[in-house]
Amino acid sequence: MEKNLLIVDDEENILKSLQRLFRRESFNILTARSAQEGLEILSKESVSVILSDQRMPGMIGSDFFKIVKEKYPNTIRLIMSGYTELESITSAINDGAIYKFLLKPWDDEKLLSHIREAFSYQELKINNSRLSEEVKNLNEILEEKLKEEKIKNEFSFRTLILAQQLLDKIPMAVFGISTDGLIVMVNQHAKLLTNREDIIGNQSDEIFPEAICNAIFAENLTEEQEIEWPSINRLARVTPINSAMGNCICVSILPPTHSSTLLVSKKIQD
Asked: Residue 15 and residue 130: Cα distance in Å, rounded?
């Protein structure tokens, strides 16, 4: 951004004196001999810092800066005066229209320091404004993503609830087991069969007999197996499940009639 300094003063000799003082600086100098002329320049040029006299014909500097604050809020505004018009100046300072109040006659080095500081402050102000806008945009993006994630999570939760309800409708006990033997899912029939509500989180060997556990932990379990559960006179079907989401084992306990038929058939064959 081009650094422009606008000097507003109705006295020609003051304007020339300030131009000589600032001519070696890295910013461009624009001049106006009245507040109205200053507003016209501001409507055409991008200005970073404004140095204005307080007492001018037509419009005093503090009133000029109140207008500038509303139209060009990013400008840094400094006012100079050789008069003690504290009431109007104090009002403008309190309203945020004036960045600094400087007395005439000025000290060259101090005035240069104030103007340099004003340009640094203006650059910092613009950077902060840009950063705030970037943070705002980032927050909006994050809020949108959070909304999307919330919708996805709600959908996943409803899907899990529905899956559990469907699982509970299956007319046999079903157990979902992780590859390390932890029971991670059961249906209502599994709870009724074992007469336990706290099945999830238990290890397989706390629920199933040794023969079924051996099948669950078998390294070569690649196909479905049916194994007898003698204490309840049922057959357990051990099924490996491999998918992109991960591997697990499903143990389903066949209904009594089906188990009885298979067990009788097995005994005849033996």
From this structure: 34
List the beta strands (DSSP E) in 34-125: 49-53, 76-81, 100-103
Query: For the range 211-218, what are the long-range contacts, defined as Cβ-Cβ under 8 Å and sequence gap of 24 or more?
Result: 212/236, 212/238, 212/251, 213/181, 216/177, 216/181, 216/249, 216/251, 217/181
**Contact by Cβ (8 Å): 153, 28:** no
CATH number of the domain to which 235 belongs = 3.30.450.20
In 3D, which of 101, 15, 13 has the Cα closest to residue 54?
101
pLDDT 10s digits, 60-95: 998 999 999 999 998 999 998 876 666 666 666 766
Q: Is 217 part of any domain?
A: yes
* Same domain as 194, residue 83: no
For residue range 203-234, what is the model confidence (pLDDT) as tens digits? 999 999 999 999 888 877 778 899 999 888 88
Assign residue 12 the CATH number of its domain.
3.40.50.2300
**Structural domain that includes position 186:** 166-269
